[in-house]
Input
Amino acid sequence: MSQTETVLANHPRLDHAARDTPAETSGRHPDHTPVSLPPSMSLDDRLIQLESGLIRWALGLTRGNKTKAAAILKIKRSTLGDRISRCRLNGYDL
Output
């Protein structure tokens, strides 16, 4: 058994994902959550979309406190500021 097969066999979600039909053909995520992605969305655009949602969530929890939001996200405060700029969330309204 290869190292990859060992990891898959010992991790229930990864093993499940490896056994099932790939998400690309089934239209579903391995945990059976429907996946609805535009076919032409780039990986960078999808990552920014996901990151924006997480940043908004953390800022909402902390009522806009960026230091506390960074702590929740387990990143440095300066990194949060960079990511806010990259995701164009400057002036984000809670």
